[in-house]
Amino acid sequence: MTDTQTSAPAALAGIRILDFSHLLQGPFATQLLADMGADVIKIERPGKGDLFRSLTFRNKWVGGSESPNFLAWNRNKRSIALNLKSPEAKSVIMEMAKTADIVVQNFRPGVMKALGYGYEDFRAVNPRVIYCSGSGYGEDGPYVDRPGQDMLVQGLTGIMAATGQADAPPTPVGAGFSDQIGAMNMVYGILSALYWREKSGLGQEVKVNLLAGMLAHQNQEMVMALNFNEDFKRPRSGIGHPGMDAPFGTYPTQDGWVTIAMSPYRTLVGVLGNDDLLVYDDPEKLFAQRDEIWRKLAAETGKWTTAALMEALLEADIWCGEVKSHLQAAEDPQVRHMELVTSYEHPRAGTVKVVAPPVRLSETPATIRKPAPLVGQHTREILREFGYAEEQVSSWLASGVAYADEAPE
């Protein structure tokens, strides 16, 4: 299979990343950088590779063999599979490090250092290297030995306790939110360090953790709670935020649901056509009686079809939207207009439908050039690039120092 060719220049062309990361946080970060043109060399375990290769939802595999979780976060990368405990593999990695710009890893704190792949090890061979570590709770402290997983961090940082209805259990976000926030912070830190290196010539260490990221991304909620010494109380209805008053929330229709955000209450009541609801048109009542108001508004919205209600609300300049499933979102007219769902060809999974790169640059657009790789698919290619003879490469493959699952031509 040949790579997708593009004539457009890439913003991060010439930047090389050694990517030791697995699962979601690190791989999403390096995929975002790869989409912008960085050469990401994914360093994986021989045979097994990234843990996400063996994890999937509902035991479903794209093309019968490939994990959708892995395919989601690893396009535009090359894979080399090496036994990190092997002295020969370490010599190869440190040779690659001499020309690497960035190293990314999200193992538990101390694991990479113990293997001889810590920041100081890479800086010794390349003082300009930027070394980015992602962890659950930082590099030390009382939680350093805890597993740092997305849902666990959601629970620790308040977002679960603030999500859902008061009579229901605390509700996690229906996606890997902590990990994805962590990935964005990795990219933010790496690009900041790259810019500093352009001015100073110096590399540095970048440390990102899920705990700090999730707190930072709830800053308005934290500022409210900290400064008034009072936690939010979840509503008992479809109100959409524990700090908001009515009508902010999710409302039923005859055939679905709609969301209504910050909108003039009186205008909304006018659209729904029940002036009896104007008795609540007071800032104090709209919060104190928000669950009661929600129920009465919901009784009115339930008389409409989604399409008819949306048309009426938009005509009145009410902030609103439909509630859609993932499949419905993919068919949304704005999503289709912006071409936010695309696909690539994979040597085993076939056509893989994916979400397109989210950031658009006018002169150096992000592109999908390569599918997510097989384990060690590019082992031979990468070792040749660094000057290793075919005889040496074959010897390492035979001895287990390296591994290659090579795609069919």
Automatic annotation (TrEMBL):
Domain of life assignment: Bacteria
InterPro entries: CoA-transferase_III_domain (IPR050483), CoA-Trfase_fam_III (IPR003673), CoA-Trfase_III_dom3_sf (IPR044855), CoA-Trfase_III_dom_1_sf (IPR023606)
Signal sequence extent: none
Family matches, as Gene3D superfamilies: Crotonobetainyl-coa:carnitine coa-transferase, domain 1, formyl-coa transferase, domain 3
Record keywords: Plasmid, Transferase
Keyword Transferase annotated: yes
Protein known as: CaiB/BaiF CoA-transferase family protein
Source species: Sinorhizobium chiapasense
